[in-house]
Specification:
The protein has ten helices and two strands. The chain is mostly helical. Strands 1-2 form a two-stranded antiparallel ribbon.
Length: 179
């Protein structure tokens, strides 16, 4: 499957956005706290959904569960002007109850359904190993093998995976890998 250039570009930007939200200046994982804050700012953030969809899509992080990989894989091959209607795509995923108010707010916007499609695709790529930025698939595999570890260990693994994804992105941009 070929991911469209649109989603290929956004994949790295979305991973970087989540990485930026994850740690404070002292290195503490504060992702949940920052996401909660972002969700409260949705009325302001929606003004950026066309220009920087990856920044706004973060409010839906961990809010979708995908029931049709076939539909989602097909979506990733499309350019931003070829998306299906949100109503047809919504049948390929389940939304967490806390997303309902956010979805309603976004859908009031002229490009709301388009943006929800982008947000769902970004989440799908982030968590699906063959589409995730390099390093993230290993974190998912480790998580499956180490279900009994403490949450802090999971956070550390996620942080390492994001760091590796960031390093891979920098290499893609033409920089040498920092070892």
């Amino acid at each position: 499957m070929n991911i469209s250039p649109y989603f290929r570009q956004l994949r790295s930007a979305y991973a970087a956005e989540l990485d930026d939200l994850t740690f404070d200046s002292e290195g503490k994982n504060i992702l949940d706290k920052r996401l909660t804050q972002r969700r409260k700012e949705i009325d302001f953030l929606i003004s950026m959904m066309e220009v920087s969809p990856e920044m706004v899509a973060a409010v839906f992080h961990k809010g979708f569960r995908f029931t049709s990989t076939r539909v989602m894989d097909h979506l990733l091959t499309l350019e931003s002007d070829e998306f299906p209607e949100w109503a047809s795509l919504a049948s390929a995923l389940e939304m967490a109850p806390w997303t309902q108010a956010l979805i309603a707010t976004v859908q009031k916007q002229p490009m709301g359904d388009w943006f929800l499609t982008v947000a769902a695709a970004l989440e799908y790529m982030f968590f699906k190993p063959e589409h995730a930025p390099a390093g993230h698939a290993d974190a998912d595999e480790d998580e499956e093998n180490d279900q009994d570890e403490e949450p802090l260990d999971e956070e550390e693994r996620d942080a390492k995976a994001r760091e590796e994804a960031g390093a891979d992105w920098m290499v893609e941009q033409g920089f040498d890998r920092k070892e």
